[in-house]
Amino acid sequence: MASAGFFVILITGEHIFGVVKLRSIIHVDMNAFFASCHQAENPAWRGKPLLVAGDPEKRHGIILTASYEARRFGVKTGIPVWQAKKLCPGGLFVPPDHKLYLSYSEKILAMFRNYTPLVEPFSIDEAWLDVTGSYRLFGTAKEIGRKLQQRILHELKIPCSVGIGPNKFLAKMASGIQKPLGITVINKSNLQKLLWPLPIEEMVGIGPKTAPILKEMGINTIGQLAAMPEKLLSGRFGVMGTFLWQLANGQDNSPADPGALQTVKSIGHSVTLPRDISDPGEISRVLLALSERVGRRLRRSGYTARSVILTVKDHNFVSGSRTKTLSEPTVLTETIYQTAVSLYRQKFTPWRKVRLLGVAVGKLQLKEAGRQLSLFKNNKEKLDRLTAAADEIRDRFGDKVLRRATLCRSDSNGTMPETDGDLI
Amino acid sequence: MLINIQQKDLAESLQLVSRAIPSKTPLSELEGVLLTGDGEKLSLFATNLEMGLKTELDIEHKAGSVVLPGKIVEIIRRLPGETVVLKVNTENFLTEITSGTAEFQVFGLNAADYPSFPAFSSECSIRFSVKSEDLRRVLKQTIFSVSQEDLSPAFTGILFTLSEKDLQLASSDTFRLAVTSCPVKNRGEKGSFLVPARTLQEVIRVFPASEEEIQVAVLQNQLLLNCNNIYFSSRLLTEKYPDVKRVIPQKFVGRAVVETAAMLQAIERAAILSAGENNIVSFTIADNIMHVRASSKYGIIQEKIPVALEGEEVKVSLNSRFVLDMLRIVEGNNCVLELTGSDSPVIIRDNLHQDYLYLVLPIKL
Asked: Which of A160, A310, A363, A377 is the most exposed place for a label (fewest CB within 10 A)?
């Protein structure tokens, strides 16, 4: 790792791009985190195959995490419990305890903050640390990484893998290379050797939707992606293509942002329809189905939304989106839906053929304590209670047990296909 | 049609009706202003079918009619000369507008396709009159507490209830309720109707704050207002409005008198920190002190202001926005708080207008 504090002048061709500070980023990834937490808490369970299995009340339950001891029996995350029991008959099956994980996660993050304030939690068991400025106090990134790994293991009994790189992407890729308890450095000089041979699926930023498309283009490894002409990728994937190409070449300028987890900007879903539609009734039904999903995710997120965003792409691929700000924040599917429909009526040409519809909510704020009482025992309060009850039923028995009658038509060929994906 | 008119007069009149010009409508002929003249009176009328605005100018001209596009408002406003000449070709409605150095040719439309302003006639089911300044006052006292969401249409309107001697207005977004009334001149008629707050906003704008009487009438599903040369019409809401009297408490545990300005300013300060969805400000109304408190991740504020309380001490949390909305339009030096408990309504009254009642529901913590 180039020691921190250097300034490098990037020169491309004849243009001087400017002074860029070389950064040192550490990515820490807890190994089998849920299982490790239980083992840390109960010394008797250490060294034994331990499996954290989903709540059996909620659709049978799958394996959420298996300890490394259990992985030797072939247990993988995501397989059903019955299968895991067959593979690993002597395994300890433990229900998940999110409070426990959160408390460990917070202890670990607090430890990280002793070394730098620039800690960006990525999820409950992963975080980035920008230690560029910590060199004089705590040493090189590799030294800090080793110290962290040792402290987490000895003080909290949790194993972790450490990745180090000049940016967040390379650090994250590095932490995945050696598990458990690895320390890996990826930088410009060993990029070709460590990063490029990896299969494209393992690259951060490439999901189950993008990978097959890349493979169709003959791209199977990260190295092949890096070698593609950038134009080809941006032509196929837009801005995302350029972004992926830069990542594959080891370029990532995103900062380690301590507030990143707190800033969910919007929650949305969109759908490309199986055929273009123009009938207002049909459009309303699609908007309802989308609003239902958005509403449910919104309520789970603990946020309330103050705006609704409707996106429409017509049969000519002309797309536009319109936003409406609500006077009161909402979590209700009905409000999202009715706002989306009224946006459609007000802002888009009626009877135009529509190819894609998207509904999102924005201006998110954390839900507050306290409930504003209302007069006239109006519908809203009833709706609040109805929604809460419906959510509870769906939490227990699955999303499909309760459906709105308007969405039950089996005859229309406008039946809802899977959404294109989350528009966070 | 040929009109020779002062640019200023025409611009002002167009400005007045311009708010009723729809910006986007499937009926493209509505996107304009109707000019009709009988030779002595020139009338300008615009409607978006929800609301109509009409005004008249006394000016001699050659009679005729035309619908000019909405752009006419800006065209006339920007003309260089003191006078304007409008000349309408009756064949194709091409309208020549000349003023000073400028010369416009505007494509007009046939006025036959344009609706007309409903007449005040014997067909009107309700007729009465009210002083312009009174109507403006009761509108201002109620208009802010309507619901902004179109989802419960009834609550986007203000309920007018006419009795023999007065007109009562009530509005609510279900979290608060404003009720007020003013005297009317009425020949014994009674009735009630629900008017969209959105259109009533324009009433406050276009009718002057004067002692002059506004003629009010209800014709089928429309409200008509007229004062001098200004005519206003609004669609009525057909939704049912709940019984307002039922939710107004009759028993109180305490009654406090507080200086309006002191309370307003204290809550404005507290509101800085009461950010968030409910803008929670907590009040403890004790013997002679009212504590106002608010807190958020940015900090804490607490302030004590003098009150005169008769009755029990009450702690209650309210949305600061709701309280501020009302306090800002209070005209009296003092306000009266009628308290019913910590999880039940607070009534705020303006000591200058005894029949004005503002009820706010608390936030249950």
From this structure: A377
Cβ separation B149–A326 shorter than 8 A: yes
Can you tell me which residue has the tokens 């609510």?
B172
Superfamily of domain B2-113: DNA Polymerase III, subunit A, domain 2 (3.10.150.10)
Q: Across the strands, what pairs with A118?
A: none
- Pick the residue from chain B with its C-alpha nearest to A343: B150
Report the Cα A71 to chain-centroid distance in Å. Answer: 24
Q: What is the amino acid identity at position A3?
A: S
Full strand arrangement of the beta sheet holding A63-66: A63-66, A50-53, A92-94
Long-range pairs for A56-60 at CB < 8 Å and ≥24 separation? A56/A81, A57/A396, A58/A395, A58/A396, A58/A398, A59/A397, A59/A398
Low-confidence ranges of chain A (pLDDT < 70): 1-21, 55-60, 259-264, 368-369, 377-379, 409-424
Residue with tokens 């008769």: B310
ipTM above 0.90 for this complex: no
Tokens of A366: 């954390």
pTM given for the model: 0.60
| Cα angle value B133/B135/B139 (rounded, 5°) | 115
**Are the beta carbons of A373 and B363 separated by less than 8 Å?**
yes
Topology annotation, domain B250-360: DNA Polymerase III; Chain A, domain 2 (3.10.150)
Measured between CB atoms, does A328 come within 8 Å of chain B?
yes
Catalytic: A126? yes
Shortest Cα distance from B172 to chain A (angstroms)?
9
Contact B348, B260 (CB under 8 A): no
Q: Judge whether residue B307 has pLDDT over 60.
A: yes
